[in-house]
Amino acid sequence: MKLLSQLRTSTFQLALLYMVVFATSVFLLLAFIYWRTAGFMAAQTDETIEAEIAGLAEQYRGRGINGLITIIRERVARDPNGKSLYLVTTEDYMKLAGNLATWPEGSQSQSGWINFTLNGSVGWQGPPRLARARIFEVQGGLRLLVGRDVDDLSALKRVIETAINWGMGITLALALLGGFMISRSTTRRIEVINNTSRKIMNGHLSQRIPTRGTDDDFDQLAENLNQMLDRIVYLMEGIRHVSDSIAHDLRTPLTRLRNQLETTLMAVDNDEAREQAGRAVAEADQLLSTFNALLRIARLETRGNTADMKPVSLGLLVTDACELYEAVAEDKQQDFQQSLDNEAMIDGDRDLLFQMVSNLIDNAIKYTPEQGGIRVSVYRDRDYVVFEVSDSGIGIPDDEKKNVFQRFYRVGKSRSLPGNGLGLSLVSAVAEIHQGQILLSDSHPGEERPGLTVTIQLPAYRKQNRRQKAGQGKGDNDETTADATELSSAE
């Protein structure tokens, strides 16, 4: 899989493109060298043959046909194993002189050139060889063939062609290997940036991209990203400080206002005034609840993976939550079923997990009508522990499922019910801290009330997880404890 991912990288594709351009250039260069070399050698051979023909023509003009035959016999006798080829025959191809026994077979061009093979059929002794010659018709119906053995030239061409083929193969192999090595080196550095970015997205804002000290493009990119992260952290700390100030400046007055309204509620005797004061107290409670939920979500999202993780039995935790809500379900005559595996352990923050579980069970009861059905499950699925809540309520349309985790977002069907649209946002933040995945689906697809099934998949507890988290800083521990305390007191 790593090799396939390596081949898909833009660096490797760019190297591959460069390899194609480079290989094409090498091919054109080698082809030009071959064309010039082989063409020059072929031209030299033809010029040698033409020189032989010119010499024989001069002898023919001075001494006639008999002189021509005599000079050919003398040349053959002087160098019987030479490269030059001669043959003089009558009109019916009867041999008169030359070192070929019979007239060769081959395709003749319009200019009289012929390529043929020297073998036993022409009286050649030895292995077959290639030859090239030119043919003339001499006075009296005689035929004249003058040529040369070009087998060495053909062998040299084959050597050059083989060298070109091997050269192209080696070039492509080296270019491919070089592209892979360059891509691998670049991908490693990009992967370092990606890994650090993923840790930062998971909330580890103290992470920074390492540099090699080479001051190359990647080091400059890493330094710019690190400076950008420093600036972001500075701004986020400023926002967090403002949020804390708001919490300090507004929560206390709101609490006082709520207490004063409650005191007024207890003091008034008029029924109408008591009802109005009661509504004001409820509105103040709702405002405080919304305000506290926003602060909790913001703190969870900026903190990321908490370091205050301990082995938790999710089954026992959900059992405790179900005991709190069984009475509410009974009041609505709902069928509240439980299937809980108490041996299903995860590594997590118990207070945050309890808040997540409680929100989902509360939503299921709230949005399920009377005499409806609710099922809560906890089970082990390979390397994960799955928490699942199913109901027979109004459900969530498919086109809105992706939006329900946004703050203050409420499905159209549920706008008339109490709530502030922050419950699932808090669930999403807690699940992300525990590296969980959330899936929303219909419990009863196709029915008038499709219901909703919320499935949260959390990594199962492993001892090595504890060792990996042991080295994290104490600051996150303090922050987690503060969040857990805030969750417990606020709810």
UniProtKB/TrEMBL annotation:
**Residue spans crossing the bilayer:** 12-35, 163-182
Q: Indicate where this protein is primarily found.
A: membrane
Q: List the source organism.
A: Marinobacter xestospongiae
Q: Where is this region: Disordered?
A: 461-491
Name the SUPFAM superfamilies on file.
ATPase domain of HSP90 chaperone/DNA topoisomerase II/histidine kinase, HAMP domain-like, Homodimeric domain of signal transducing histidine kinase
Citing just one GO molecular function, the answer is: kinase activity
EC number(s) recorded for this UniProt protein = 2.7.13.3
Q: Which reaction does it catalyse?
A: ATP + protein L-histidine = ADP + protein N-phospho-L-histidine
Signal sequence annotation: none
* Composition-biased stretches (Polar residues): 482-491
Q: What keywords are assigned to this protein? A: Kinase, Membrane, Phosphoprotein, Transferase, Transmembrane, Transmembrane helix, Two-component regulatory system
* PANTHER family reported in the protein's UniProt record: HISTIDINE KINASE, SENSOR HISTIDINE KINASE YKOH
This protein is called what? histidine kinase
Database matches in Gene3D superfamilies: 1.10.287.130, 6.10.340.10, Histidine kinase-like ATPase, C-terminal domain
Q: What residues does the HAMP domain cover?
A: 184-237
Domain of life the protein comes from: Bacteria
